[in-house]
Amino acid sequence: MKDVFMIHFTLPEHFNSEMWDVIPAQRVVVNELLEKRVILNYSLDMDRRNLWGFMEGKDMAEINSIIRSFPIMKFVTVRIHELAFYDTAPVGLPELILN
To answer: The domain 3-82 is classified under which CATH number: 3.40.50.1820, 3.30.70.1060, 3.40.630.10, 1.20.120.430?
Structure first.
C-alpha cells in the first residue's frame, strides 16, 4: 500500500538565469509524474515563493529519491510531510444535457 506525502518547496526570493533555465525541464518531469499519478497535485502560490506537491509512494525514501531528480532541487529547500490521510473531492462525469 502506498502512502501520500505533502512536499513543500521554498523557492528563492529572486530567480537567477540558471533557475529560469531549468524550469522547462522541471515542468516536463512534473507532467510525466502527474500522468503516472505519482504526483497527485502540484501548486504554486501567487508570490512564486512556495510550491506544494502531493505525491504517492511506498515510503519516505522513495519520495526522496524522486524529488532529488527534480531539476530545481539545487535552488530550493524542501520539507516532506507524511500524511495521515489525503481526501479529495469526488471526480465524476459531467452532467449530460439532452437538447
So the answer is: 3.30.70.1060
